[in-house]
Design goal:
Layout: H1 3-7, H2 15-18, E1 20-25, E2 30-35, E3 76-79, E4 84-87, E5 90-91, H3 92-98, H4 101-110, H5 116-127, H6 134-141, H7 149-163, H8 173-198, H9 212-220, H10 236-248, H11 256-265, H12 271-283, H13 290-301, H14 307-315, H15 334-350, H16 354-367, H17 370-374, H18 381-391, H19 399-420
Antiparallel strand pairs: 1-2, 3-4, 4-5
The structure holds acetyl coenzyme *A.
Acetyl coenzyme *A is lined by residues 286-287, 290, 314, 320-327, 375, 377, 380-382.
């Protein structure tokens, strides 16, 4: 600690002095004072710390960005220790209880809840952009009959870029507004087409007279081929449950897929290819693919009496308990609580999913076991969502696609914020080189 820090207490320092970090470089004995803003220092302020004038300067090393803020954002607030999640200041449980997904998507993107006419325009615009170009069907047709729907979704999102060359004008506010509406409107259609292709059934077109979740459920439904253009009956309770799941997944600040959206967007790529990249990041089993893994794990367990054996394997490090743990939440994921409640609404219509009993038993054992308590491992959003999706009749392959649909609004809100942020530049991390020193042939 530098000598002056010993002689002056924190209370005696002026506010300007207090909001700084004093650093002594023991290699040189030099002292530095670095400002602290919002409980963070700017990594670039470390660059002045050098041993020789020709040095590059001090870097911070942070694999997987565990302690690095890459942006300032006004969209989503998470307090992982307290289990708090808010979109634009509103607690997630209030939004899930009182708002629709489209209202929440508007909120996430615009920063405020829509008034009556704003909402009418928004819902109208989203509804009337749900159709995709007929050629989209042709390239989806080209995928193998058993192609994973997430692979189809990633590819078709990227392909939309070729239909909307105007999207390249990322600096144009009008263009951004249009692409945001198109993407939120079309992702359920792409998702449903991807699913329908993967089960070898004909595509069902969007219905403009249905609300967002009902239209999606309608496009997913297994129909008789002759009914393709007719309105489907969608159970209102199931549509409501779908809407809640959409709300819970709308945004989650700088997670892996959102960070990807921002990284790709930072090169000024259009939002179709950027969201395709984000969807690809979401596909991984440690991110949006986790709910699929949870159901597979519960199916593999098969009955409650096998739970202790699985827990023993997890504790021996042989496998992970899927749907448990989170980089940010070190408490019960607030979304998991809401999902658990939504499950009852779904099971009242569909009948109880037997995997739920195994999941409840697993949760009970895990939450009382020292291994999980010590590591603060709690159920995350994916632990129960998969069980609900299964009860809704969706096969496991489609789960990450169901996550991608609502996350589109979060990706776009974050992309828009990035584009408008004058501090942002092309994303380009540094590395610590560990390879061979110069050598010659
Ligand atoms: N099962 C068993 N042990 C776990 C689990 C788990 N699910 N998650 C973490 N741990 C253990 C780790 O082995 C580690 O133990 P150690 O200290 O003895 O080495 C400790 O808990 C800390 O875990 P980390 O890996 O450091 O946590 P990290 O923040 O890197 O990982 C992640 C978070 C990827 C979500 C992890 O908990 C995990 O793999 N969970 C299972 C997959 C999952 O459910 N993903 C969905 C996340 S939510 C979402 O994306 C929407």
């Amino acid at each position: 600690m530098p000598p002056e820090a010993k002689s002056v207490t924190t209370e005696e320092k002026s506010p300007a002095q207090r909001d700084t970090l004093a650093i002594r470089d023991n290699r040189t004995g030099r002292d530095y004072t670095i400002p602290i803003e919002r409980d963070a220092i700017r990594a670039m302020d470390l660059r002045q710390i050098k041993v020789h004038d020709t040095d590059f300067g001090l870097l911070s090393y942070d694999p997987a960005f565990q302690n690095t803020a890459s942006c300032q954002s006004a969209i989503t607030y998470i307090d992982g220790d307290a289990g708090i999640l808010r979109y634009r200041g509103y607690p997630i449980d209030e939004l899930a209880e009182r708002k629709t997904y489209l209202e929440v998507a508007y909120l996430v993107i615009h920063g405020h809840l829509p008034g009556k006419s704003e909402l009418d325009d928004w819902v109208h615009d989203i509804t009337f952009h749900t159709m995709v170009h007929e050629n989209v069907k042709k390239f989806i047709d080209g995928f193998n009959h058993d192609a994973h729907p997430m692979g189809i979704l990633v590819s078709s999102l990227a392909a939309l870029s070729t239909f909307y060359p105007d999207a390249k004008k990322v600096g144009d506010e009008g263009s951004r507004k249009l692409q945001i509406r198109r993407l939120i409107a079309k992702i359920p259609t792409l998702a449903a087409f991807a699913y329908r292709h993967s089960i070898g059934m004909p595509y069902i077109y969007p219905s403009n007279d249905l609300d967002y979740p009902s239209n999606f459920l309608s496009m997913m439904r297994t129909p008789s081929p002759t009914l393709i253009r007719e309105k489907r009956e969608v159970d209102e309770h199931l549509a409501h449950a779908m809407d809640i799941l959409f709300i819970l997944h709308a945004d989650h600040e700088q997670n892996c897929s959102t960070a990807t959206m921002r990284t790709v967007g930072s090169s000024q790529a259009d939002p179709y290819v950027a969201s395709a990249a984000a969807a690809a990041a979401l596909y991984g089993p440690l991110h949006g693919g986790a709910n699929e893994q949870v159901v597979r794990m519960l199916q593999e367990i098969g009955s409650k009496d096998k739970v202790p054996a699985l827990i023993a394997d997890v504790k021996e490090g042989k496998r992970k308990l899927m749907g448990f743990g989170h980089r940010v939440y070190k408490n019960y994921d607030p979304r998991a609580k809401i999902i658990k409640k939504t499950a009852d609404e779904v099971f009242a219509v569909t009948g109880r999913n037997k995997l739920l009993d195994i999941a409840l038993a697993l949760e009970e054992v895990a939450l009382s076991d020292d291994y999980f308590i010590k590591r603060k491992l709690y159920p995350n959003v994916d632990f129960y969502s998969g069980i609900i999706y299964q009860a809704l009749g969706f096969p496991t392959d489609i789960f990450p696609v169901l996550f991608a649909i609502p996350r589109m609004s979060g990706w776009l809100a974050q992309w828009q914020e990035l584009v408008m942020d004058s501090e942002q530049k092309i994303s380009r991390p540094r590395q610590l080189y560990t390879g061979s020193p110069e050598r010659h042939l």
